[in-house]
Request: fold
Amino acid sequence: MKKWIYGLAVLTLGLFVMLRFTYEAPSFIAFDEKWANLLGGNELIIFFHYIGEPIFVVIVALILVFWQWRKGNYRAIVLVLLTVAAGNVLNQLLKKWIERPRPEIADQLLSFSFPSGHSMTGALYLLTIAYLLSEGLGRSKKALLVWLVALILACFIGLSRIAESRHFATDVLAGWSAGYTWFIICLIWYQRGKKKDAV
Reply:
């Protein structure tokens, strides 16, 4: 992996912390309102929330675990558990710590809003899939396509939460940021372990 990828994780961590302490600032309230007006009720974008639903993510994670078990890559199984399962736990802990209410709409969800769980876990499981699929592809066009599809899907999962009025745009941005940062932390562990195993 290229070094800028790790630098980006530092930036996304900084973005998350900044959003945590400033999402109530007038500029971010205006930002949230702008995105809510832009995407609100868009049925095409709302559809993408299904691939970020917890049951779907769990099924995909189990498929990844089974696939890596068949390959005998037990370290990759732990990677999946760290990114997807531990990432979801981290998201719930952050929500309970920050306690931001969701947008006010009828029949709103009762859980807290910041950071968006769909955005965070969606980014985590899709980046994990992309990484594991591209491991054997090197720097090929197929690997680039895999990463591109993963990033696009992660973006649409997050945007679907704004379109549904389940989250503010700042929740989604924070979810992507926290998800990417946690993914890179897990990836550092995975890659260091692989180097040790190869010695």
Q: What stands out?
A: Residues 133 and 146 are 8 Å apart (CA to CA).
